[in-house]
């Protein structure tokens, strides 16, 4: 869809929206469809090719913007099935489509063997808080399962365990894990990462952290692993982590592993990245944000769990005014029990429009473009070893780099000055990171509308500024 | 703005949006404005009259829909000031405008004496979880303040207190308070309400609950009071509650009181309701949802606190990649520290468009219409005492009613049958409530596009169905 097609489609949507409001009184106020009505009406998976393919311009996100217009028109709070069956059922179908497109293990599908499923949250922070809450309750239920229900003994034991709970995340995990622990009032401990392992969290580091915590009488119950860390897009060693946690898997001491792929998860749509998902079958939950790199407008964070009962058990409450025959008979999904808020927006419409407008192949082309641009920047930087060192190589469209210098202090100082100079100019806005005392510039090419000409222009500016720092002509 | 005006304005917006994307590369990527740049450019309060007044049709919500179109165009995550200064600064200004329009005590204004301020969340559930989290940390900090920082003694004392914390809400408070307590892992206790006090929570009931809890060694730290309960729109006795909590106000045992006005808060825009807000100066936080009754599209929940430091202290974390000179020097507001998620949508644009398009007077006219329609239905129901009893009188556009009968069981059974019959027809969708064993039908007239003709039609249907139940001709 190019900008002219968007212009026409959007204006047609405006006409529909206006007519919808003008005639709203003539619509039925409550739906008379039956639970499960929607899935048979839709394809079993997202289209490979866009509809129509010829219209794809992989660098615009108009389909999601159109979906938002409709979503705001329906303007519901959509907190249970009976409010708006289509909102609920489309979300289930679209999240299955998306899980298939990313090659998530079948346990994360709504019809999978472990009764998993997906839900759309607003942000990765909410996703992580929600799964950490479910992990906590799952753990507390398991470790006190032997005690009589509602007994004082059980109450006391639960409080004793609560006071010892530890949530873990690697030093490279996004700060939202620490924030979630702070909100839930549980301890947070960092698993160290090492430049030698490309800043990935290893099984050995997890094993050591868990052993140290247990030796201190503490109870690790949750771990965030990352598929693409915020700083440098590192991928943790999932197989190694699964291996060291396997002795307690399925026992009361089972440690919930959540994989946060907020940014890089979109790259799982490329077949070459899909082997990364195999070990997820040993873990408990997964999220990524289509609003970051999958051409979907903010906000849209996709979350899957291996067993939906974990979420519902932690988050369900049933006041009278939310009861209805469909929910009471467990015929339907009430997504309010899969999230923190009660109300929810019709976000699945965005994913539905995006998946159908681009098709899987269109989305693959878009993601590959960002990956290739990152590799292009890396190649350019490598052509000037007198000026730059690659801190971490191009991965998922992210390159991090440092300016050459005699020692760590000089490298840090020069890199920071180049970074601040470029941002002050206002033509590009870069971000930076400080990992194990090393300051590096981050350049992300996995962004809509970034093209080779922008990468070249940024490289030229980097050369000019780094050249001035290093004292050579550019 | 009528539907034709919306149609034209929306199509003009589409043209602007298309041009924005087509020329996005020519814009400066990071803003060069200075903190505080926006407030001097805007009026000090929302306009009394709409712009232009003649265009107001109080029953459409187009301005918010237009704002959503622009908001989705800018499509940022807006988590700190530097990302998008306008998003932050407009929110501060608009939340001050709104606080003034609702006559909230000055302590809730951003420039107020206690450094309060407002923030927009997605839903009341998030608002309540967020303030309960802040209340918990404020309480724990206060009761352990005498112990040395980072000492084992302090750590132990904190855990001892954590295990005794109790969040309270009346039996009429929305279920989101119970859900927030469940998420935070603190006890939840209900304060009883009584039909004799019109289902309002009284100071005496709070005092008794608090005394009972303390006698059991527990530590009540938080209370949700309601301005318009979900079931019957009751208003709790704020003055009485403030009075009984005054002995511990400002001490380490201070109980945080949050006033949830999710639905009825919009009615504070009417001067006759504004005396209700005076006692809020003794409380800690307040929220209402403009998306319920103030012509704003879902989602938009407005929250104010008396001291913003309480939120920031509970929710702030500062990883390297979120740092920047403006935040580090505390020159600006970073709303990510006032909420659970990191990213945030540009929701203040909706409120800004709504306040300017309708003006305070236009919004007052809209709210008054819903109130008057509720009174109209109540009068009609009272004209048929043979068929109906008023369970709770029209308040904020909500009437609850029961069908006549010989005893409570017959009344409940008849009322439920009338309720289910009407919903099965699909012309109207009513909700119900069960309060102290009494089943009642809820009719809410505080909704856009509900007009006298709909109230009359609903009354006719109620008469027909209740007449059949009571065994008389309608």
UniProtKB/TrEMBL annotation, chains A, B:
The keyword Lyase applies. Keywords: Decarboxylase, Lyase, Pyridoxal phosphate. Pfam families: Pyridoxal_deC. Its cofactor is pyridoxal 5'-phosphate. One of its GO terms (molecular function) is carboxy-lyase activity. GO terms for cellular component: cytoplasm. The modification N6-(pyridoxal phosphate)lysine is found at residue 292. GO terms for biological process: amino acid metabolic process; carboxylic acid metabolic process. Belongs to the group II decarboxylase family. This is Aromatic-L-amino-acid decarboxylase.
């Amino acid at each position: 869809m190019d900008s002219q097609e968007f212009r026409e489609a959007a204006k047609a949507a405006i006409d529909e929206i206006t007519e919808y409001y003008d005639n709203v009184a003539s619509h039925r106020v409550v739906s008379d469809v039956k639970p499960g009505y929607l899935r048979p009406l839709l394809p079993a998976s997202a289209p490979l090719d866009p509809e129509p393919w010829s219209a794809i311009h992989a660098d615009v996100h108009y389909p999601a913007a159109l979906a938002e217009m409709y979503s705001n028109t329906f303007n519901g709070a959509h907190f249970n099935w009976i409010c708006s069956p289509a909102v609920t059922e489309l979300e289930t179908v679209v999240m299955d489509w998306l899980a298939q497109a990313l090659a998530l293990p079948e346990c994360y599908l709504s019809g999978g063997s472990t009764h998993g499923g997906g839900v759309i949250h607003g942000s990765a922070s909410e996703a992580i808080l929600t799964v950490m809450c479910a992990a906590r309750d799952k753990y507390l239920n398991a470790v006190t399962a032997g005690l009589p229900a509602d007994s004082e003994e059980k109450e006391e034991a639960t409080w004793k365990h609560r006071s010892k709970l530890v949530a873990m995340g690697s030093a490279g995990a996004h700060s939202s894990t620490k924030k979630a622990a702070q909100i839930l009032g549980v301890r947070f401990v960092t698993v160290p990462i090492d430049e030698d392992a490309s800043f990935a969290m290893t099984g050995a580091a997890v094993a050591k952290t868990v052993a140290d915590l247990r030796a201190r009488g503490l109870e690790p119950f949750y771990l965030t692993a990352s598929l693409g860390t915020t700083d440098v897009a590192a991928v943790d060693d999932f197989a190694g982590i699964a291996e060291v946690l396997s002795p307690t898997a399925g026992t009361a001491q089972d440690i919930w592993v959540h994989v946060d792929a907020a940014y890089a998860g979109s790259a799982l749509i490329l077949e070459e990245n899909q082997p990364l998902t195999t070990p997820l079958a040993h873990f408990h939950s997964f999220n990524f944000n289509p609003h970051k790199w999958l051409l979907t407008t903010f906000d849209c964070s996709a979350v899957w769990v291996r067993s939906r009962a974990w979420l519902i058990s932690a988050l369900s409450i049933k006041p009278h005014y939310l009861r209805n025959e469909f929910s009471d008979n467990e015929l339907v999904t009430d997504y309010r029990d899969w999230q923190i808020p009660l109300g929810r927006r019709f976000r699945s419409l965005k994913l539905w429009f995006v998946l159908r407008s681009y098709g899987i192949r269109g989305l693959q082309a878009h993601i590959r473009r960002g990956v290739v641009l990152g590799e292009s920047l890396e190649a350019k930087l490598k052509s000037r070893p007198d000026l730059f060192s690659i801190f971490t190589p191009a991965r998922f469209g992210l390159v991090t780099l440092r300016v050459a210098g005699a020692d760590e202090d000089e490298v840090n100082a020069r890199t920071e000055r180049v970074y601040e100079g470029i941002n002050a100019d206002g033509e590009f806005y870069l971000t930076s990171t400080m990992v194990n005392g090393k300051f590096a510039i981050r350049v992300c090419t996995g962004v809509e509308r970034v093209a080779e000409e922008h990468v070249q222009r940024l490289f030229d500016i980097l050369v000019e500024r780094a050249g001035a720092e290093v004292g050579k002509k550019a």
